[in-house]
């Protein structure tokens, strides 16, 4: 093989991401503009971040929740529920019909199940001795 293999820069990573997005859009027409709508929020207590959610609504009006985190001392105060409800509500207003995420057995599986998500896949031994759950939720109007 006569090709150079090098660690990708951020720009190169973005280029590859865009190329895959272009290919995907050729296969299945997109249903939203812009192609990615960030839905990212954090909650602060006296300027300190105590909870947050990073999510995107992408290409086909799909909501992907990448990160939902609440600091230990602030858990069980409905902060996670507030954040997920806010993001789902905004995504629905923009036309989203489906949300998806993933979590580990030591993270928030029960939280997502309580919020109407269903497990559609499990990856065993990820990490060893644990499970990674893939979840989805139909977003109703």
Q: Secondary-structure map with pairings?
A:
Elements lengths: L9 H18 L8 E10 L2 E11 L3 E9 L8 H15 L4 E7 L4 H6 L3 E7 L6 E8 L3
Parallel strand pairs: 3-4
Antiparallel strand pairs: 1-2, 2-3, 4-6, 5-6
InterPro entries: Acyl_CoA_acyltransferase (IPR016181), GNAT_dom (IPR000182)
Keywords: Transferase
GO molecular function: acyltransferase activity, transferring groups other than amino-acyl groups
Task: Write a structural description.
The structure is a single chain. Helix content is 28%, strand content 37%. With 141 residues, the protein is an alpha+beta fold. It has a single domain (28-138), classed as Gcn5-related N-acetyltransferase (GNAT) (Aminopeptidase, 3-Layer(aba) Sandwich). The chain has a six-stranded mixed beta sheet with strand order 1-2-3-4-6-5. The model has no long low-confidence stretch (mean pLDDT 97).
